[in-house]
Design a protein that fits this description.
111 residues, 0% helix, 49% strand, single chain, globular, five-stranded antiparallel sheet, four-stranded antiparallel sheet, mainly beta
Length: 111
């Protein structure tokens, strides 16, 4: 098992040792992969090359977004923030928001 390999659920714990390793940043692209679906949460990892991101949209449920590497600009509810690795933002359900990579970046979305 490598650091990027998830530890499967055993009835009490699921571990994802290296979320960033699950989705590489591809030149000129945006990509994503579901890292985990567990009781009460879903984790999706997104990778964006510079200038790529997600156009304005809404989510049906509240979300948490954490930057894993790179730098992201996030806009929501009339606010804008630039986030570096470790930065975290919460967005309420149905609030329009967007994401833009200021450099090659990866983020984890938890809902």
């Amino acid at each position: 098992m490598t650091a990027a390999d998830p530890i499967p659920p055993d009835g009490g714990m699921t571990a994802l040792p290296d979320l960033a390793a699950l989705v590489p940043v591809a030149p000129g692209a945006a990509s994503s992969a579901t890292a985990a679906r567990v009781a009460g949460a879903r984790v999706v990892v997104f990778a964006f090359d510079t200038g790529r991101g997600l156009d304005e949209h809404t989510a049906a449920v509240p979300i948490l977004v954490q930057v894993l590497d790179g730098r992201l600009r996030m806009r929501a509810a009339g606010n804008e923030v630039e986030l570096a690795p470790g930065g975290l933002v919460h967005i309420d359900a149905r609030v329009p928001h967007s994401v833009e990579a200021l450099e090659p970046s990866r983020m984890a979305l938890i809902r």
